[in-house]
Design brief:
By secondary structure, the chain is an alpha+beta fold. It has two domains: 30 residues; 324 residues, Endonuclease/exonuclease/phosphatase (Deoxyribonuclease I, Chain A, 4-Layer Sandwich). Helices cover 23% and strands 26% of the residues. It contains seven helices and 14 strands. The strands form two sheets. A seven-stranded mixed beta sheet has the order 1-7-8-9-10-12-11, with helices on one face. Strands 2-5-6-4-3-14-13 form a seven-stranded mixed beta sheet, with helices on one face. Helix 2 crosses helix 3.
């Protein structure tokens, strides 16, 4: 090996090492399990066995609103960030709907914190300021975070969170990492790291209710990534069920219920499949909306997703759900559609339950 070749190879190794160090410093590698801080501004009440509990889950699309077709919505999408005015409008609208419904627990997905695309807003803090009288307790977990993403559409920081607000005491909370698509070892460092945000609410008899919040991978092609994530969610729920701990989970699962795949036009079916990975959950646990509701005669009432696509004039699929322990009883449920179509590309799913009575 000539001296020039040795120096060239040494130089390449140094450059590779510097690039690796830069990527390491700019990206985020969460632990498989992480204890999270919980904030309670006042002495919140404690849940009582057998009581009614109202829950809302809503992907608020980082308060971007519905006037855009973003670069990651469609191949023809050109928008890269919402205006400050649109985010302010959406913030007020999200607060209005929550205040009108007054659920006991609110599960939110896609709230930005420190992201260039949303002007570095701490959106959870802004929302809590408007709802402090209703929700003394809250916790949050990142599912996407990086100081710099080299994608030309982003070219800056990202920070996106799951957030849970509660009228009742939250004893503690944790973040559980879900499987990540292996993909390219470099590019995957800059991608979302989907997770479960688990909040533990004490019961007055000494037990607890586990409330889970999630946002699963938005696949661009049919692969095993979403199935692996659903399997991980199922294992977490199975553990609670085997311990006798009542639980419920809500979020954006990015998966269709039974029967909706064939109702979508061919162009809208990618990356879904006729055999939804979600069957791992609905085979064992009650789901809102049920498959009969989401694909039956009144299915339009249960549509939760209104993609940013100029070819659509309203919601056309269901991808947001609540699942719950068979120990919990469903009382009523709905998707709030009429006055939420312009706030986000997702609609809030709302349900009332009865917690298990004391033994």
């Amino acid at each position: 090996m000539t001296r020039l070749l040795r120096y060239t190879l040494l130089g390449l190794l140094v450059v590779i090492g510097l690039i690796a160090a830069m990527i390491y410093s700019l990206t985020w590698r969460p632990d498989a399990k992480e204890v999270l801080p919980v904030s309670c501004s006042t002495q919140a009440p404690t849940l009582v066995p057998g009581q009614a509990l109202k829950v809302m889950t809503w992907n608020v699309q980082y308060l971007a609103g519905k006037r855009y077709v973003f670069w990651n919505d469609l191949a023809a999408g050109t928008d890269e960030r919402p205006t400050a005015e649109d985010m302010a409008f959406s913030l007020d609208e999200v607060a209005r709907v929550i205040r009108d419904e007054q659920p006991d627990i609110v599960l939110l997905q896609e709230l930005d914190d420190g992201a260039k695309a949303s002007n570095y807003q701490h959106q959870l803090k802004l929302l809590q300021e408007r709802l402090a009288d209703l929700y003394p307790c809250g916790t949050s977990a990142f599912d996407w975070k990086a100081d710099f993403v080299p994608n030309p559409h982003i070219f800056g920081s990202v920070g996106r969170q799951l957030a849970t607000l509660s009228r009742y005491q939250i004893e503690h909370a944790e973040r559980l990492q879900l499987p990540v698509d292996p993909g390219n070892p470099v590019s995957r460092q800059f991608k979302p790291r989907d997770a479960l945000l688990v909040s533990y609410l004490p019961l007055s008899d000494g037990g607890q209710l586990a409330v889970l919040n999630t946002h699963l991978d938005r696949a661009t092609q049919a692969d095993n990534a979403l199935q692996d994530q659903v399997n991980a969610v199922a294992r977490a729920l199975d553990k609670f069920e085997s311990r006798g701990t009542p639980w419920l989970i809500g979020g954006d699962f990015n998966l269709l219920p039974l029967g909706q795949y064939r109702r979508l036009p061919d162009a809208q079916r990618t990356p879904y499949s006729a055999d939804s990975a979600l069957h791992v959950l609905w085979d064992k646990y009650p789901m809102i909306p049920t498959n009969n509701e989401a694909s039956g005669i009144d299915r339009k009432r249960w549509l939760t997703h209104y993609p940013n696509d100029p070819g659509l004039n309203g919601p056309d699929r269901t991808v947001d759900y609540l699942f719950y322990s068979p120990r919990i009883k469903r009382v009523e449920a709905m998707v709030r559609q009429d006055d939420t179509l312009r706030i986000s590309d997702h609609l809030p799913v709302i349900a009332r339950f009865l917690l298990p009575a004391a033994p």
